[in-house]
Write a structure and sequence with these properties.
This protein folds into two domains: 123 residues, Leucine Aminopeptidase, subunit E, domain 1 (3-Layer(aba) Sandwich), CATH 3.40.220.10; 318 residues, Aminopeptidase. Helices cover 33% and strands 20% of the residues. Strands 6, 7, 8, 9, 10, 13, 14, 15 and 17 form a nine-stranded mixed β-sheet that branches. This is Peptidase B.
């Protein structure tokens, strides 16, 4: 399904956005019949609360959508999207009351509210389409929504239909759509081309591990996106309990998010040289699975002691980051559903990120507020570096103790990104635990829209 705005030629129904404190002022400007109808309904403009106002024929003539209070709006996002399920099929147009500074975010939320994962069951949602509000770049918002839909679809697809091969197919489809180049290194070729960690993590699965390498653009700053593509994570020989394995189809959420972001960048024609690297594997259990206590080589030459086979995401990312750093990009970003520690620290709604430069962090935080894509900075805390140095090898993939797990994982990755590359890491969740406006329960993008908003400043384009 492609998210699209309605046309003004579709005879849209006017929508009036009414804050709690402004209802009386709005009513005073309406004809007597509308005042009577609204008062008779005892309408209160709570966030997303809809009141349908009929015309003389009985058909809906106008709509009121509550916008609540400033305090209520701080506690959620995509406020207009909350109204979409209560609206009858048709086209709508904002007629009054929507502040210009939030029009783009609210319009995006309306488009995102149409998302439904219906590959296996369920009918398409009823078409409740919005005319792009005045001043909103409709094509840009549609491209952003399409990127988010792609991310959600990839995460929501179960692992039996979204293994490394299917993730490669999705990347090839995206490359074809935007005339991008793509190369894939698969199976034992990973060893031959010096990607030992990706091969080791994925070798126990019947579906061969691979490194997906997509390129687009021939001019501008070099931007490399690296996404964790663990299509299912059993935990390996450190087997997860069943309750922890249930959502592991989403362990390729980093890959899904960078592919969604790549779509946004390419569809909008950002003047960058984009590279997307996705190590795609399945962390399975078999006789040839890697073991706790193994010491593994890496592309960068650093040796890694495996103290937990369930800390596999940082291993596959390590080879991909080292490979990406060899071209000295102007900026390299990794996105991964990496640690439970990040969820304990900030919960499901926030995406923590790590970077060394304060001005980058400040710009990302501002962008996250501007586009309602919440981020929170965590530190590359260098006093913890010793925790990832086991002595028997250069690095430890799972230091004991459990404290600061998101930070030690980020420090581990930074070793492979290198000292000369501007690098940021995002430890995302990729999952909406309960339905909310514009975000049904299931796979969800995190951080991509904030990055897209910030990239022109971060890359000076």
């Amino acid at each position: 399904m492609s998210p699209r705005f309605a046309s003004s030629a579709d005879a849209p129904i006017p929508v009036h956005v009414v804050e709690a404190e402004s209802l009386q002022n709005w009513l005073d400007q309406q004809p007597a019949r509308i005042q009577t109808w609204v008062r008779g309904a005892e309408y209160k403009p709570a966030l997303g609360k809809v009141l349908l106002i009929p015309g003389a024929s009985g058909a809906v003539e106008e709509v009121l959508v509550g916008y609540g209070t400033p305090a209520q709006r701080k506690r959620t996002r995509f406020h207009l999207a909350a109204a979409v399920p209560a609206l009858p099929e048709g086209a709508y147009q904002i007629a009054s009351g929507l502040p210009a500074d939030v029009a783009e975010v609210e319009a995006l939320g309306w488009l995102l509210a149409a998302y439904k994962f219906d590959r296996y069951a369920g009918a398409q949602p009823k078409p409740v389409r919005l005319v792009a509000p005045e001043g909103v770049d409709a094509a840009e918002v549609e491209a952003i929504a399409a990127g988010e839909f792609l991310t959600r679809d990839l995460i929501n697809t179960p692992a039996n239909d979204m293994g490394p091969d299917a993730l490669e197919a999705a990347a090839r489809t995206l490359a074809d759509q935007h005339q991008a180049q793509i190369a894939v290194t698969t199976g034992d070729d990973l060893l031959n081309q010096n990607f030992p960690l990706i091969h080791t993590v994925g070798r126990a699965s019947d579906r061969a591990p691979r490194l997906i390498d997509m390129r687009w653009g021939t001019a501008g700053p070099k931007l490399t996106l690296v996404g964790k593509g663990v299509c299912f994570d059993t935990g390996g020989l450190n087997l997860k309990p069943g309750a922890s394995m249930g959502l592991m189809k989403k362990d390729m959420g980093g890959a899904a998010t960078v592919l969604g972001l790549a779509h946004m960048i390419m569809a909008l024609g950002l003047p960058v040289q984009l590279r997307v690297l996705v190590p795609a594997v399945e962390n399975a259990v078999s006789a040839n699975a890697f073991r706790p206590g193994d010491i593994l080589p890496s592309r960068k030459g650093l040796s890694v002691e495996v103290n937990n086979t369930d800390a596999e995401g940082r291993l596959v990312l390590a080879d991909a980051l080292a490979y990406g750093a060899e071209e000295n990009p102007d900026m390299m970003l990794s996105m991964a559903t990496l640690t439970g520690a990040a969820r304990v620290a900030v919960g499901a709604d926030l995406a923590p990120f790590f970077c060394d430069e304060d001005w980058i962090a400040d710009r990302l935080m501002q962008a996250s507020r501007d586009v309602a894509d919440p981020l929170w900075r965590l530190p590359f805390w260098e006093p913890y570096e010793a925790q990832i140095e086991p002595g028997i090898a250069d690095l430890d993939n799972a230091p004991k103790g459990g404290f600061g797990g998101a930070i030690t994982a980020a420090l581990f990755l930074r070793r492979f990104a290198g000292e000369n590359v501007r690098y940021s890491h995002f430890d995302i969740y990729g999952w909406q635990p309960a339905s909310a406006p514009a975000r049904p329960k299931g796979g969800v993008g995190m951080g991509a829209r904030a990055l897209l908003e910030a990239l022109p400043d971060l890359l000076d384009i």
